[in-house]
Amino acid sequence: MLRLFCLSALLLCPFVSARAEFINGSIVFNISTRAMEGSLTDAIDFADLTSISGSDGFANFPTGISWGDFRIEARDASGDKLCITNAEFGTFIGDITSDTYVQIPGTTNSAFRGIYASGTFTPGTNSFFDGMLTSYDAELTLPLSYTNGSLAGTSLAFSVYQAVPEPSSVVMLSVLATVLGIGKLRRGRKQATVAADAT
After folding, report:
1. Beta strands 81-86 and 110-123, pairing class
2. Most buried of 77, 80, 105, 142, CB within 10 angstroms?
3. What is the pLDDT of residue 131?
4. Cβ atoms of 54 and 26 closer than 8 Å
5. Secondary structure class of 197 (helix, strand, coil)
6. Do the Cβ atoms of 47 and 29 come closer than 8 Å?
7. Is the separation of the CB atoms in 72 and 142 below 8 Å?
8. Can you spell out the DSSP letters for 111-163?
9. Distance between CA atoms of 106 and 108, rounded to whole angstroms?
10. At CA 23, angle to CA 18 and CA 27, rounded to 5?
11. pLDDT at 165
């Protein structure tokens, strides 16, 4: 019975691990499909973002998949909450942890603004996400530039880099470790008893 339980637990573990690691990777969204207005110091609204390329776990993610509209408040937006949601792609909820503004040296009208957010991603209904976990740690990187009165940004990088552990996975691994430990202890005692009987 003990051996059967151990075998069942071992068979389950690879599936849990594979699911947890499958989505690790990044996807890039096009943000230059329409003219952007304003300056880097203003609040900026984003809409009509679509996926254009992926890497690692997102390497086969389809292009042209829309993500939700969202707004970045005027700088400095550090500490602001950020929620982006779309039924097909999913939902990112996080905090803007960095909002950097740099005036390009030697210029009077060129600057850069880099926004970084960290939070949790919940996959959407797209078939790419079938069988995946319900939530993952994720981060968002949004570089923007302002030159000669024109605001520009070519892409938004979205990275899903570490799965949030499922409670069931943690429990299963703990139980497995305990059972294997007990089994090893029993075998050690049995061998000691056989050795004692032989003498």
Report:
1. unpaired
2. 142
3. 86
4. yes
5. helix
6. no
7. yes
8. EEEEEEEEEEEEE-SSGGGTT--S-EEEEEEEEEEEETTEEE--EEEEEEEEE
9. 7
10. 160
11. 58
Beta bridge mates, 83: 93
Instruction: Express each pLDDT in 126-166 by its tens digit.
Output: 999 998 888 999 999 999 888 877 778 778 899 997 665 55
E-strand stretches of the chain: 25-30, 44-46, 50-56, 70-72, 81-86, 90-103, 110-123, 136-147, 150-152, 155-163
The span from the CA of 112 to the CA of 4, in Å, is 61
- Confirm if 63 and 50 have CB atoms less than 8 A apart: yes
Phi/psi at 68 (5° precision): -70, 165
Please provide the distance, in angstroms rounded to a whole number, between the alpha carbons at the two ends of the chain: 31
Neighbouring CB atoms inside 10 A of 117's CB total: 25
Q: How far apart are CA 38 and CA 155, in angstroms?
A: 18
- Which of 43-52, 73-82, 143-152, 158-167 is predicted least confidently? 158-167
Q: What is the pTM of this model?
A: 0.68
